[in-house]
Design a protein that fits this description.
79 residues; 2 domains; 86% helix; 0% strand
């Protein structure tokens, strides 16, 4: 590798990293802003989150029941 480009690697790398982080922040902010501006979308997201939480709790409970009633069921059903 040519040693004359080494002084330029750090600034070029910094510019590339800054650009990537800037685009990621912008994309994330645009998504959050859209959800905050639309109350119906925010309500749907809140409802979906609550539904997902309830489903996770039900799955945990069913797994506990299966662990008690059918020991080793996880090993038999692992794919």
């Amino acid at each position: 590798m040519n040693s004359s480009i080494f002084p330029f690697l750090v600034p070029i790398t910094a510019i590339i990293c800054w650009s990537v982080v800037s685009m990621a922040k912008h994309a994330n902010g645009a998504t959050k802003g859209a959800a905050q501006q639309d109350p119906m979308l925010q309500a749907a997201l809140t409802q979906a989150e609550a539904h997902a939480t309830r489903l996770e709790e039900r799955i945990d409970q069913l797994e506990r029941i299966l662990d008690e009633d059918i020991p080793g069921w996880r090993a038999r059903n692992a794919r």
